[in-house]
Each structure stands twice: as structure tokens, then as C-alpha cells.
């Protein structure tokens, strides 16, 4: 990032932190959502307000390959919060990344379920 883009990022990042606090987010959520914004800015070496849908698809594809689903979901939610509360944009790309549905076995099986 050049100096002007870094200044713009710093301003948006501070707004992001302020909005997280104003929305009553817990400290752990503030940390996770702000880390998501820093991570995506570092990945592209640009301010996240200029990213396209294709950029986000590429980012999340790489993130899925290198991180856990909980990290992927936190980054998605953090970026969604950033777009809605800081950039005042609707989140158009909610379906870019969707975690797999995990089926859990019940603790106790009924006789009908065993048969």
C-alpha cells in the first residue's frame, strides 16, 4: 500500500473498531473481526474497500485451504460487518463461502433408528 492508501485504511480501520464497540461486541469478537480486516488488507496489500467479488472468492479459497472453518466464518462475518457498518454497503457476496453442513449423530438411538 502506498502512503495515501495506508492512511485511508487506518481511517476505515479506526471506524471499524469504533462501530464494533458501539454495537456492543465482546472483546473477543472485536479482536477476531479486526484481525479479519487486517488479514485481508495484508493479503491483497490494499484497502478492503476496493475489493471485487472475484478478489473475495480468491481470498476465501486460499483461506479455506490454510485455516479452519471457524477462522473462515469469522473472517466472513468480520468483512460483512465492515461492509455494512463502515462502508455502508450491502453485503452482496454472502454466498461466496458457505461452511459444510456437519451431521451429528444423536447421543441415544431409538429402536426405530437402529432398525
From TrEMBL:
GO terms for biological process: DNA integration. It comes from the Bacteria. Gene3D superfamilies: 1.10.150.130. PROSITE patterns: CB. Keywords: DNA integration, DNA-binding. Transmembrane segments: none annotated. This is Phage integrase N-terminal SAM-like domain-containing protein. It comes from Shewanella septentrionalis. The lineage of its organism: Bacteria, Pseudomonadati, Pseudomonadota, Gammaproteobacteria, Alteromonadales.
